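Ligand-bound model needed. S-adenosyl-L-homocysteine.
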Amino acid sequence: MADINTASIVAGRVYLVGAGPGDPELLTLRAVKLLQKADVIVYDHLVSPAVLDFVSPQAERIYAGKRRNEHTMRQEQINALLVKLALQGKQVVRLKGGDPFIFGRGGEELQTLAVHGVAFEVVPGVTAASGVSSYAGIPLTHRDYAQCCMFVTGHLKDGSADLDWPSLVRLNQTVVIYMGLGGLPEICRQLIAHGAAPDLPIAVVQDGSIATQKVVTGTLQDMPEKVLLAKLKSPCLTIIGDVVKLHQELSWYTPVQGASAN
Ligand code: SAH
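Prediction:
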């Protein structure tokens, strides 16, 4: 007979799982297996509804938010929740968009679990840089254009992005910017001010890998205006560098016409 004592000795565990950029076909096999056996799923705003279709109907679902400017649960509350659920003996899936270790604060969540002696595992996911660029037909490296690729966050603090601009304007590299939509005009301005060519190609991809995907290409100079005209909405990934020239030739994914973003 299950009572509080037996429940407390059942080992709970937290699985930090990457959900990929949106298309559920990009989930790993391990992620799907865990979604089907977990007792509870704690998921972020970036996790696409189609991915949640793989969650067992018996599992409890807890939305942890994290939309920009709408932190439904503060990070400390999420950390405490994961510890609490695991100590109740539950098998918890902490589901995050993309890869949990890339701009996902997965490391912070695991540190709290480690402090409390909670067992955990990590399941990598396809990060936006990789998944979104693939669905946009933009290879991040190419022998003719880029031998190196950087992932940076464009999230602005007090209106300015605290980035190492000289390192971002080097030749023969691709720069991928996560969370950079709001700060795009400032980012383009700073790159040009630090020596990047005003006609350097840039792409902004909204909703990569799902039906509402939109790809807007341009140059550092004209992109801020193009993004406004296209009325792009978050999440958007920015790709800067000569590899963007390949988009026209290599674009293969056809999003569903007329699909509306959720
Ligand atoms: N851990 C995630 C990134 C979280 S930061 C990962 O590995 O992908 C959130 C940012 O990721 C968004 O602001 C956006 O820049 C990018 N992003 C995630 N999914 C995306 C998608 N489907 N399309 C475009 N950008 C996406």
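The two ends are 45 Å apart (CA to CA).
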